[in-house]
Amino acid sequence: MKRNSIEHSSNHYDEQLFSIDEQICTLLKQRKELSIDRPGFPSEEVLSKWATKFDLYEEYLSSLFGTVRMHDYFKPQVEPGGFRKHLPVLKSAEVDGKFYTVTFIRQFENASVVHLNIDWNETNDTRIDLHLNHNHFALSIGQVYDCRNDRASGSTGNFVHTFIVSPPLPDDISAMTLVFKEYSDVFNDKATGLAIVIHLE
Questions:
Q1: Of the chain's two ends, which shows fewer C-beta atoms within 10 Å, N or C?
Q2: SS3 content of the chain, % helix, strand, coil (to 5)
Q3: CB neighbours of residue 155 within 10 Å
Q4: How confident is the model over 42-67, as pLDDT tens digits?
Q5: Contact in structure between 137 and 116 (CB atoms under 8 Å)
Q6: Shortest CA distance to 42 belongs to which of 68, 21, 22?
Q7: What is the rounded CA–CA span in Å between residue 110 and residue 35?
Q8: pTM of the model
Q9: Are β-strands 98-108 and 83-95 bridged in parallel, bridged antiparallel, or unpaired?
Q10: Residues with Cβ < 8 Å from 95, sequence gap 6 or more?
Q11: What is the pLDDT of residues 72-87, one digit of tens each?
């Protein structure tokens, strides 16, 4: 899924702001390192207090910290190109009545694409249940690989999460392990404790 680029106007910049803006960047870096990429979000009470203390609009601060929280969204994205082959996997795990399966991995010249299929007994499901109970997953393979949740789609009884992995996985994946961790929010702040481990040997 391609992300829209953001256009910036560089017609005017007050050089007196440079040292302040550099300090802001320094603080953002420190915040990122301390949060271990899980920045969270200040409470409404805290935002209201800061708005009064620093003479800033509360909605402005809310927007600012909302953007800070989206740090990974702005990471340069690899779009798979140059399809090479499919790697068969056919591995699954069953947890609490849900069947989690990775059937294959698509190999491209610059990336790999992994699909996590989730199936369950849809007898008592409704469209409202599907919407309310749908959580998010993050894929972890190791520090070498960047794993991006590209999209998710599904219907009653089935959901598919698609991940783009770069650099591409080796064609011999027999020694690798895929770990899918579940979160209750899109920013991966709130882990549910569920982890689906798929060993590829």
A1: C
A2: 25, 35, 35
A3: 11
A4: 899 999 999 999 999 999 999 998 88
A5: yes
A6: 68
A7: 30
A8: 0.72
A9: antiparallel
A10: 194, 196
A11: 777 778 899 999 999 9
Q: How do residues 133-186 score in pLDDT, each as one tens digit?
A: 567 899 999 889 999 988 888 877 889 999 999 999 999 998 899 999 998 776
Beta bridge mates, 36: none
Task: List beta partners, residue 115.
Answer: 162
**What is the token pair recorded at 90?**
């056919």
Q: How far is CA 90 from CA 58, 138, 140, 159, 201, in A?
A: 50, 20, 18, 17, 11
Residues 189/38, Cβ–Cβ less than 8 Å: yes
Task: Look at the alpha carbons of 128, 183, 143, 41 in this order and tell me if their dihedral is positive or negative.
Answer: positive
Residue length of the chain: 201
Tokens representing residue 140 in the block: 């972890």
Angle between helices 44-53 and 58-69 (to 10 degrees): 120
CB-CB contact of 72 with 66 (8 Å): no
What are the tokens at 151?
């999209």
Torsion angle (degrees, nearest 10) of CA 122, 125, 128, 129: -90
